[in-house]
Amino acid sequence: MTTVNVTTNQNTVTVTQDGSSTVVENPVTTTVTATTAGPQGPPGLSLTVNTAAKVDKSVVYYDSSTDQFRADATITQTTLTDGGNF
Among 13, 30, 44, 72, which lies 20 to 30 A Cα-Cα from 54? Predict the structure, then answer.
């Protein structure tokens, strides 16, 4: 693991890696930013879409009788725009 120690009163930077140290006198960089990965949020939604019968311009919909999201010939752009039931 690499550690960086910044001593502002002497204007030196000490870099320590694997037990070996290097001192940089009068370093050019005066700002050091250290970041670590923060806590991870909950997993996202797992969504599976049944596309076994997909056709051109299928629209994804939920079919409660099969408890699935589906994309097939039942609902397409054409069925929505040409006589679709709104």
Answer: 44
